Amino acid sequence: MIVNALKKLPEKTILQRIFLGRNINCSEGEQETCDMRLNNSKGFTLIETLVVVALVGLVAAMATNGSDFLRGHRLSEGSRGLQVEFQKLRQDALTKGNPANLNGRGFGLRFVSATQYRLFEFNDADKDYTYDDAGEEADAVTVDLPSGVTVTIGDAGSPVNNVLLYDKRGLSRKTDWSTESNRTYVLRVGGESTERCVKVGRVLLQEGVWNGVSCTVF
Question: Which domains, from first to last, does the chain contain?
Fold first, then answer.
């Protein structure tokens, strides 16, 4: 389509020279003679030069804006996805679990790294109402955050082995089974100034924007 459009332009324009590298109005047998005429022609006009500069600037702007959009989209996808995971864990804790398994206390999420976490059913093997380690994770599923997205606890706390549990009443709990009243997961992506957050309370679960100190919920 681009070639057809260029063929409609006047002979020897800069767009033909740059994008086609030849005089497209010449037949194959006349190409050598046409190329000699083209080489002997004068330089580019001011208008032709300005057109090319404008096209290059437009392409560069589109590439930059496209990258910014993709980063922002991945960040939103990451924070929204994490909030949905917590909502599902809470719902599973309320409605799922094997009644015959007396060690089943609920469901949880543990971060393996700053970019990956595991979803699991909390199987309290020693019946002490305390999450001890990964050995008490049943039916675990590993999930990756969107590409380039990382998470911290608060502004800079490491998420590795950070665990959040939901009991069968839908309450969020720490590993020692005390209730969790306020935990904030902060999500970032390189090159994006905006930071997103997911705030977990005893019952409330909210998504928002991190302002460097707290989570401003939507």
Answer: 2-43 (no CATH), 61-217 (3.55.40.10)
